[in-house]
Amino acid sequence: MFFHKRLFILPLIILSFFLLTGCGSIEKTTTSSTAPTQTDKGSHLQVHFLNVGQADSILVIVPNGQTILIDGGNGSDGSEVVNYLKSQGVKELTAIVATHPHEDHIGGLDTIIQSYPPKQVYMPNATSTTKTFEDFIKAVNASGAKKIRAKTGVKLDVSEISGLFLAPNSDQYEDLNNYSAVLKITFGKVSFMLTGDAEAVSEAEMLKSGQDLQATVLKVGHHGSSSSTTSAFLNAISPKYSVISVGLDNDYGHPTQVTLNRLTKAGVPVYRTDQDGTIVATSDGDTVKFTTSSSSTSPKPAQPIPTIATGSLAISTIDLSGEVVTILNSSDQAVNLTGWKLVSEVGNQTYTFPAGTTILASETLKVISGGNAQSGSGVLVWTDSNIWNNDGDPGALYNVEGQMVSRK
Question: Which of 86, 92, 50 is nearest to 71 (CA)?
Answer without folding.
Answer: 50
